[in-house]
Amino acid sequence: MKKINIVTTFAIALLLSSCAMKKDLAACQEENKALQTNYVDTKEKLAAANVRVASLEEQLKRQEQAVSALQQSLDKSLSNANQNNISIDKLVDQINESNKYIRHLVEIKSKSDSLNVVLTNNLTRSLSKEELKEVDVQVLKGVVYISLADNMLYKSGSYEINDRAAETLSKIAKIIKDYKDYDVLIEGNTDNVPINRENIRNNWDLSCLRASSVVQALQNQYGVDPKRLTAGGRGEYNPLQPNTTELGKQRNRRTQIIITPKLDEFMELIGQAPEE
């Protein structure tokens, strides 16, 4: 009877133990199933995350390229801006230099115009009313023109200076000597009537000879520096009026004393012009 109880107890214990193992196995299986589900879900999430990371990396790469392009554009713009600033500065310097040169020219012209006015006034005041009838004084484009009628200066049909012209030439010579910064051109002009004199071929010769006579008188009799003097003739080819009337011919027979600023000083001013 006692053995039966022991066997029974052992069987019951074994049965209970078997039931417990079955429960544990079932629990393990349930847990394993849950883990498998979690694993699959996590794997899917990881794959999705990897895709997202790859997409973000591609976007980052494009952004870096865009930033690099913007930086290059900015660098180029800054470089162009610096070059433009240099060009603008250079242009401003050129404009300032040109303005300085222009102001200098204006000052020179104003000074020249003022001297011409003074010269003309001094000359006209020194001449008598009778002399002013045969001497015309004008300022044209910064040049003083003193026009003398041929019948006042020369013997008829000749290039020899008459005695009546001496006083007038002396007054003109004094003005010329007072204004040493001017050159003097003596220019002969005739009408279109052919000349018929021995050793004078035509009106070209006559106009040049008359101009030369005035130049030599200014030099030899009145002490004008010959380096400042030039003699030239224009014959009948620079008329003031048509040669169709006696009055027109009389106006055209003239000798002009042209007082001008020194050309070498003018050319020196031109040489000082700023480069473009």
From TrEMBL:
Query: Which Pfam families has this protein been placed in?
Result: OmpA
Against SUPFAM superfamilies, the record matches this protein to: OmpA-like
Q: Does the keyword Membrane apply?
A: yes
Q: Where is the OmpA-like domain?
A: 141-263
Q: Say yes or no: keyword Coiled coil present.
A: yes
Which UniProt keywords are listed?
A: Coiled coil, Membrane, Signal
Where is the chain membrane-spanning? Answer: none
- Which intervals of the chain form a coiled coil? 25-80
Q: Which residues form the signal peptide?
A: 1-22
- The molecule here is called OmpA family protein
Name the source organism: Xylanibacter brevis
